[in-house]
Amino acid sequence: MSSQSRETVCKGMLFITGTDTGVGKTVVTLGLMHRLQSMGCQVAGMKPVASGCERSADGLRNGDALALQRHSSIDLTYEAVNPCAYAPPVAPHIAAQEVGHPIRIGTLAEQARSLAGRVDCLLIEGVGGWRVPVSEHQTMADLARGLGIAVVLVVGVRLGCLNHALLTTESILSGGLSLAGWVANVIPPEPERMQQNIDTLRMRIPAPLLAIIPPLKRPDAESVAGSFSSEIANILFK
Fold it and tell me: 227 burial class (0-12, 13-18, 19+ CB within 10 angstroms)?
């Protein structure tokens, strides 16, 4: 891909959210990063907020954020990838209150814009689901809204996913945001009527199905990347 076409096709920010915690946001983000990189795009990953971080000699570290840091196209400090890191394994607004380090959406938006200026594409991974609180009055959705960027929804395909996916879709769209597409991430063991569930969502979610990720014993960026089509950049950055 030439420099000119890369600027045209793969330029901007995307917010990766999920129907719940544990639905595969990180592995989908890593797979999408890998796929875009294989097309010649410079990509960075960011996880602005993470709770349940582990203490290390370098400070608090989150496994998902470390993976995004490793897979980014440019060298990034950990703090650039994960500015708000908390040790308590609880909802981020509770963790922030406990340690006295509030989450400021405006500051996170500024940091995201700065990082986005260094690459072709910045993928911002949320925490938990779409409306997870980060302060008394704000949720992670407010970061996507403040940046004015499109959203990619990761649906964990398992029992209960239809309701969660449709409610999340409704909330994204009613908030005035664009849904660039959604990913069906099949949670092992493969649920009954898996394809019927995916077909049901395909008919009801007014956005393209970007990929179906099958149950993988060891999901990694490369294996997940193969589920995205060669037209993924055109779909996401049209």
Answer: buried
In order of start, what are the domains of the chain with their CATH numbers? 3-236 (3.40.50.300)
Mean pLDDT of the chain: 94
Residue 47 bears catalytic tag: yes
The DSSP code for 190 is P
**Pick from 32, 39, 44: which is nearest to 228 by CA?**
32
Give the whole-angstrom CA distance, residue 202 versus residue 56.
43
Instruction: Quote the pTM value.
Output: 0.94
Q: Could you say which of 11, 25, 47, 238 is catalytic?
A: 47
Q: How far apart are CA 79 and CA 58, in angstroms?
A: 11
pLDDT tens digits along 28-40: 999 999 999 999 9
